[in-house]
């Protein structure tokens, strides 16, 4: 039997990725695309090496179960082993269902749905459908994420010593940062948007902060004359501290500030 290695690798990668994404949908847990691709690639490596006669044992049932479990462990690395075993069982069930569908089509080659499709490869059709699903699922998730982000972006106006800055701020629900002395909520703003204002403003505070990865430090901050937040057809004046951030807060430029949930 002649196997075209490039098509074999691409086909296995697409099928593995499709099965992993379908599994994620069933267990209703969104996973990182990078982890899914890594796991799919690992499964593809196992299938490719198994083509070598000396490693044909990789196509045995125990080996397939182990590879499937490792793939699931990569994707769900933050879950308990019992959960990983359950998801592996779901993954294997989906794989067997797909294999059954392929066998059904293989043994019914004489069944022609359309005369013009007599010589059409059903295997290529299934792989194409899987590829379309992978891209469509990613696009739908991206659009959904964008809509969620837009709902959490508010217009904020900072007024200080006659200087007014209008910015877009993202409501960070995990941000509970407060200035210790005044106990006022902190709004983190990109430094580039406050250059003119900072020329006239003395830095009054240093805000201590810590992030999930353990990084700690201080941010320079000041208290403006007023802060106005526009949301849901409402205009609210709030007392807040403005902290200065030298990093870009949004990779795509959707917003240039982070609102504390304590602001509302």
Descriptive tags:
6 helices, 2 domains, Cathepsin D, subunit A, domain 1, 264 residues, alpha+beta, 44% helix, nine-stranded mixed beta sheet
What's the structural blueprint in terms of helices and strands?
Blueprint: H1 5-27, H2 33-49, H3 61-75, H4 81-106, H5 122-151, E1 153-160, E2 163-172, E3 186-190, H6 195-199, E4 205-210, E5 216-222, E6 226-231, E7 234-238, E8 241-245, E9 257-260
Parallel strand pairs: 2-9, 3-8
Antiparallel strand pairs: 1-2, 1-6, 3-9, 4-5, 5-8, 6-7
Summarize this entry quickly.
44% of the residues lie in helices and 21% in strands.
Structural account:
The chain is α+β, with helices and mostly antiparallel strands and about 260 residues long. It folds into 2 domains: about 5-150, no CATH class; about 150-264, Beta Barrel (Cathepsin D, subunit A, domain 1). The chain contains 6 helices and 9 strands, in the order H-H-H-H-H-E-E-E-H-E-E-E-E-E-E. The chain has helices at about 5-25, 35-50, 60-75, 80-105, 120-150, 195-200, and strands at about 155-160, 165-170, 185-190, 205-210, 215-220, 225-230, 235-240, 240-245, 255-260. It has a 9-stranded mixed sheet. Strand 1 and strand 2 (about 165-170) form a beta hairpin. Helix 3 crosses helix 4. The chain is elongated, with a radius of gyration of 27 Å. The chain starts with a helix and ends with a strand. Mean pLDDT is about 80; it is low at about 110-115. Pfam families: Peptidase_U4 (PF03419). This is Stage II sporulation protein GA (Sporulation sigma-E factor processing peptidase). Keywords: Membrane, Transmembrane, Transmembrane helix.
